[in-house]
Amino acid sequence: MSIDFADLLMEVVARRASDLHLSAGAQPTLRVRGRLERVEGYPVLSGTDTREIVYSILSGDQRQRLETNWQLDFAYSIPGHARFRVNAYYQRGAIGAAFRLIPFDLTAIDDLGLPPAVHEFTRKPRGFVLVTGPTGSGKSTSLAAMIDEINCSREEHIMTIEDPIEFLHAHKKCLVNQRELGSDAQSFAEALKAALRQDPDVILVGEMRDIETMSTALTAAETGHLVFATLHTQDTAQTVDRIIDAFPTGQQGQVRMQLSVALQGIMTQQLLPTADGSGRVVACELLVPNPAVRNMIREGKTHQIYSVLQTGAAQGMQTMDAALATLIRAGKISQSLAESRSSAPEELRRLIGAGAMAA
Question: How would CATH label the architecture of 109-318?
């Protein structure tokens, strides 16, 4: 049977899936609420099928880049219905692809279930804000919500550098320019250096992949810009270490000093399936640097940050375990799931017990 690819993509939207996978030797497969499901009624795809589908949505330049680099990031849209972030790649000599659904509508910070302190990040005049977590944890969605809040409340110039552009931002109170790697810019580092000459107030760096990007982002945050960026780290203290450890030993002291001054917040998040199976909910660890945290970063004592997170609720801070315990008490997730996602299950059980006693 011939495959109507537009219908297949609309199936992703209709079933509220987050991803579509095309792979030779398998039926088209959706990720629905975190689990993979085959799409019934579609045949097992051959290498020819996957190649024809992917090539049908690529420009000549994109085909060349895929054949040269053996992988390609790009955005694809069905006008009026959906946008997708796509990664096409070679595997076992055939072409495969992963399509991530990007919602058209921007969701507000509160509607996403993010901590109230996240609003404060959008009000900072300058500094460095990091959103971290594993792939598929909703980092892009959270960042889009923050950028949209700035767009609605400030009268400034926002510059984003993405690979590819995911959420489209209209000009509201702010002027928003969005640059995409491959079509608008050569690399994150080059685009970020150029951004400093484009009179931005707010800069979004889709991903910090190398030392040059990290260094330029830190400098931008120090010199009066509000910089948002992402990293694939599992907690807030690890995020600080990841940035510092990326630099040669001789530079690490200077980077600690820069980060201790520029950092305005780190949010580490993960998405969890709800207990009733109806969707997914976000759990966040939040670090809001106070003088004690800045001193720990400066002196290389990041292992002590967790204790500040535990006692910093008044400043909007919370540990991942505290977030998981709150979701359990609200009946949104199961305790067994929370324990499997917790880095310290004993601490999680203690928090659940303490919360039950207080109730």
Answer: 3-Layer(aba) Sandwich (3.40)
